[in-house]
Write a structure and sequence with these properties.
With 403 residues, the protein is mainly α. The chain has two domains: 179 residues, Growth Hormone, Chain: A; 192 residues, Growth Hormone, Chain: A, CATH 1.20.1250. The chain contains 18 helices and no strands. Helix 11 crosses helix 12. The longest helix is centred in the N-terminal third of the chain and has 29 residues. The chain is globular and about 55 Å long.
Length: 403
């Protein structure tokens, strides 16, 4: 637990929250200026799309490597190194004279984001427990949403003068770096921390990751695979079904982000009331969202659907992060969170193939695809209820369940 004066405690929480947004904003600044870049580099070809996809791709190995490096290097040092790489890669776009210069800077940004992504929640898991940990993990999701929204708008306005000006916003992370340096405690490497923990308990065997960490990571893969179907279908559905325009699709996405942000702010209260059944609520919200999409014949019902989906995202992400933080042993927490973080991107990758499968099941009907995904999610909710009831006794010692 953290014991410090009010100012230091606030600065510490601020440093952790601001450090958690790198992965969420990796593409937020680029999306509004992509058309401008394409205009200046007409011969970019397939490299233009790589500007968006390459950072996510490189985050996966960076997350895995960082999870193992935490055995030998302190989390504070890893977090600060990742922030330096992320800031250099983002700001470096200002000096790009051709598309390949931008590709290399985006690659550096992706590696930095991959180093940072598991470190902030890992430090939260070490420093806080119970409701305070759940609250902070919920706030990280909210903070990422606000940063993505604000920086995306800022980049769009900056591009009215020149698209390179948008990259100046990455200098914000210099302040984040200074907050990390000033406020974060310097943990020992996890291998050393594990030896200390073992020394306190005579005969304690080498700690294992545990099946619940692997199961939670599998849950994240399944959830991301199902939730990302909307990304491929939302705009096409709204326009092809004459429910609105592309601008309305953008509005729907913003409403979803707002719903996710709001529920993230009160996530700890939701977890306190529902405990492990919080996951069931998240699945039911997502299933309801897809169900409403399947029957939507006006934009009002689309709004209801995206609100349900936003609530689900704002519940499931902090829930699974909090869950893995609670069940992983101290000497394996960072690797466990890295494994869960990697699962997010594995699920995103698999979602493209699952979407094709759902289209085949529904014979190409978008409404049919939404209804099929809804039925799968309702089935997942039923499985989750059965599993929770069957394992409740074994999880009584997990702090997140009891507090």
């Amino acid at each position: 637990m953290v014991s410090s004066d009010g100012t230091q405690k606030t600065l510490l929480k601020g440093a952790l929250l601001f450090s958690s947004v790198d992965g969420m904003v990796a593409s937020a600044l680029l999306v509004p200026i992509l058309a401008n870049i394409a205009k200046d580099f007409p011969d970019a070809g397939p490299w233009l799309n790589q500007l968006l996809s390459l950072p996510s791709l490189l985050m996966i190995p960076a997350i895995i490597i960082t999870g193992k490096l935490a055995d030998y290097v302190s989390k504070k040092k890893l977090l600060m190194i990742g922030t330096i790489l992320f800031t250099a890669g983002g700001f470096g776009g200002i000096f790009a004279n051709n598309i390949m210069d931008l590709v290399w800077t985006r690659a550096l940004l992706g590696i930095g984001a991959g180093v940072v992504y598991p470190m902030a929640p890992a430090m939260i898991a070490y420093l806080y427990q119970g409701q305070e940990r759940a609250q902070l993990l919920g706030w990280t999701n909210a903070c990422g949403s606000v940063f993505s929204f604000a920086l995306g708008i800022g980049a769009g306005y900056a591009a009215l003068f020149h698209w390179k000006y948008a990259f100046y916003f990455y200098l914000i992370f210099v302040l984040v770096f200074l907050m990390q340096w000033a406020a974060l405690p310097d943990f020992p490497p996890e291998k050393e921390d594990g030896k200390i923990a073992q020394a306190k308990v005579s005969g304690n065997p080498q700690e294992k990751l545990g099946y619940r960490v692997w199961l939670t990571s599998l849950d994240m893969i399944v959830y991301m695979t199902l939730s990302m179907v909307l990304l491929y279908k939302l705009s096409l559905f709204i326009v092809s079904e004459h429910l609105g325009t592309s601008a309305d699709a953008g509005l729907a996405t913003s409403i979803q982000t707002l719903a996710s942000f709001l529920i993230s702010l009160v996530f700890s209260q939701v977890l306190k009331g529902l405990k492990r059944f919080t996951a069931v609520l998240g699945l039911v919200c997502m299933a309801s969202g897809y169900f409403f999409f399947g029957i939507a014949h006006n934009f009002s019902l689309v709004v209801v659907a995206v609100i349900c989906l936003g609530l689900s995202l704002g519940i499931i992400f902090p829930y699974l992060m909090n869950r893995v933080s609670a069940v992983a042993p101290n000497s394996k927490k960072t690797f466990a969170i890295s494994l869960l973080s990697m699962s997010i991107y594995v699920g995103q990758y698999l979602s493209a193939f699952f979407t094709q499968f759902a289209d085949w099941i529904s014979h190409g009907s978008i409404r049919g695809t939404f209804s099929f995904v809804a039925s799968v999610l309702f089935a997942c909710a039923m499985i989750a209820i059965v599993y929770i009831l069957a394992t409740q006794g074994r999880d009584r010692n997990v702090s997140m369940v009891e507090k």
